[in-house]
Amino acid sequence: MSAFLGQWLLPPGDLLLLSALGFWLMRRHALLGKSLMAFSWLALGALSMPWVSHVLLDSLMPAYHPLEGSQADAIVILAGGSVRGPTEFGPAEGAPKWMTLERVRYGAWLARKLHKPVLVTGGDPEHTGHPEAVIMAHVLQQDYGITPRWVETRSRTTAENASDSAILLKREGITRIYLVSHAWHLSRAMPEFEKQGLTVIAAGTGYHHSSSGLYSFLPSAAALHDSYFALHEWLGRVWYRWRPAFLAGGQDLP
To answer: Would you say residue 212 lies in a domain?
Structure first.
């Protein structure tokens, strides 16, 4: 339910609803209706510009710092979605989405560089029939020759990633971790892990170079895609801040 509602609170769903409301109001309140329609389409155009999407993503990203092996004792890789096994690979038990693949690739690179054990975390929030952590572990083993020490398969949200992973790590006396996720997601993810008493070192992937020049103001589907993720994170930060007052123990944003 929270995922369904989230789609209508983020672009383009929210702007389409606003435009439809404006159209409905046109007969009785022409000026208000026209204003809502104009705003929704202008906002959609702005969010489709690379310059705008990069500003939104940059507002979330921590500064990049090279990582050293002495900073933490384990690498935690957050899942980023999965799909049912694609046809071209033959019979399969699910496949990672592109975000998960990018995180797994960087986590594998860090594991080889820093020589630290790996924890993968992610349940099955999209109901594919296979936990994301199991899919991640399979990719790490098959494609990178790395076997995760821990595979956490119950969590459905970022907050649950943190709480369930902390239980596994603390059993072995580990309280300092490198947290691997997309850089724009870390500003929401890191506080959740820190609430569990862990010391968290940002290990972000997906950094980008800001757009400049004429092309940065030309609308594109890719820029709208980036704006969606940035606004999803901002909405998630607001929800995580206020959720105790509204929905104790309820569903969270993934």
So the answer is: no
